[in-house]
Amino acid sequence: MIRLALRNTVDQIIEIDGLTPDRTAALSQSDISSLPVLAGSRRATVGDFFTVSGERSDRLHIEGDLHNVDGLGAGMAGGELMIHGSGGRRVGAGMTGGSIDVRGDVGDDAGLGMQGGALRVAGDAGDRLGAAPPGAAKGMTGGEIVVTGSAGRDAAARARRGLVVVGGNAGADAARAIIAGTLVVF
Fold first, then answer.
1. The pTM of the whole model exceeds 0.85
2. What digits encode the pLDDT tens for the residues 35-88?
3. 29 with 51: CB under 8 angstroms?
């Protein structure tokens, strides 16, 4: 298992797209620490913000208050990602496989354009959960998303396949233009 622990509270947005368990499965601890991130407008590395332990595993655990860390699990194709705390925007966006388990809230665009895999959120989700990326005709085309709390506007908008379950309330325009997908709100 690979563990990333956030060193300090992050006041700026960190873009961390591409940090996925299927990618870390072949990387050493040093390689993981060297992966690029964007901190505001400057280039940085994972090691600048996180303490990294473990290597070469498709089980990735990330700890800390990650509400300003965007793109966690974006593009993920396999493996297991556990987020101990809240995640920022685009958690699991474009994922095709594997599982993401978030022990907190997620920001806007979680599961955006998702094609497969499972995203579980033990908290609330922002706007456009499992919806279509800007300008795209299709939203989620496969997989499942389960949110124990509430979801914001446009949950499952333009979804073509897949399952979205929301345990709380869903905002305005939930399931807008959905075809063949399923949105369940309790």
1. yes
2. 999 999 999 999 999 999 999 999 999 999 999 999 999 999 999 999 999 999
3. no
- Rounded to whole angstroms, the Cα distance separating 78 from 110 reads 17
DSSP letters spanning the chain: -EEEEE-S---S-EE-TT--HHHHTT--HHHHHT-EEEETTEEEEGGGTEEEE--S-SEEEEES-BTTEE-TTTT--SSEEEEES-B-TTTTTT--SSEEEESS-B-TTTTTT--SSEEEESS-B-SSTT-PPTT-S----S-EEEESS-B-TTTTTT--S-EEEESS-B-TTTTTT--S-EEEE-
Q: Taking the CA atoms of the chain, what radius of gyration do you get in angstroms?
A: 16
8 A C-beta contact, residue 21 and residue 80: yes
Residue among 157, 153, 162 nearest 180 (CA): 162
107 close to 127: Cβ distance less than 8 angstroms:
no
The token pair at 57 is 């595993």
